[in-house]
Design brief:
This protein is of the alpha/beta class. The protein is built from 5 helices and 5 strands, in the order βααββββααα. A 5-stranded mixed β-sheet has the order 1-4-5-3-2. The radius of gyration is 14 Å and the shape is globular.
Length: 160
C-alpha cells in the first residue's frame, strides 16, 4: 500500500483558521473537493474530537483529522492543510498544530493501512516543519513521497 494520490485540490497551503474547528473544516472542504467525501464528513470529524479530545494531534504540530467510515465517505482519500497561524487543539504536548491531514476511509482495513503509510511518510526529522513551510503542492507531494493525479470532477451536490 502507498499513499493515495494528492491532486492539487487535496492540498491547501497557508489556510486561515481561527481555531481547531475551522482547521478541521478546511480539511473537510479539501476532502470534498478531492471527491473522497461529502460535506457532512467535516461535521463528523469535529464530533470525534469533541467526544474523544485532541488525540488526533499525533505529533508536535500535526493533527490527523478523521472519522469512522460512513455513507458520507465515497472513497479513501487524504488531504494536507497547512495553517497560516498554528492553532491549539487542546493537546497537552503536541499543540499548536501547523499541519492538518484529513483522512477518509471506507473500511477499517483502509484505515490501518493509510495510517501506517502516513506514519512512514511523516517519519523523519523536520518533515512536519518542511510541510508547514512548503510553498507549493508539488513540494508537499515531494516531501511525502506522494504522486499527483488528475483532479476529479467535483460532485455538483457538494459545495466546494
Amino acid at each position: 500500500m502507498s499513499l493515495p494520490p494528492l491532486p492539487e485540490r487535496s492540498i491547501v497551503l497557508g489556510a486561515d483558521a481561527a481555531d481547531w474547528r475551522a482547521a478541521v473544516r478546511e480539511a473537510g472542504r479539501a476532502l470534498v473537493r478531492s471527491g473522497a467525501t461529502s460535506a457532512e464528513y467535516a461535521d463528523r470529524m469535529i464530533a470525534v474530537i469533541e467526544e474523544f479530545g485532541a488525540y488526533v494531534v499525533i505529533a508536535p504540530g500535526l493533527a490527523l483529522a478523521h472519522a469512522r467510515p460512513g455513507p458520507d465517505v465515497r472513497r479513501e482519500g487524504i488531504v494536507v492543510v497547512t495553517l497560516a497561524e498554528p492553532v491549539a487543539f487542546g493537546h497537552p504536548h503536541n499543540d499548536p498544530v501547523r499541519v492538518v491531514v484529513g483522512l477518509a476511509v471506507t473500511n477499517a482495513e483502509e484505515h490501518v493501512g493509510l495510517v501506517a503509510e502516513l506514519a512512514k511518510a511523516f517519519d523523519g526529522p523536520g518533515v512536519i516543519t518542511r510541510i508547514a513551510e512548503a510553498a507549493t503542492p508539488d513540494e508537499v507531494r515531494e516531501i511525502l513521497g506522494a504522486v499527483p493525479n488528475p483532479d476529479p470532477v467535483p460532485d455538483p451536490r457538494d459545495p466546494a
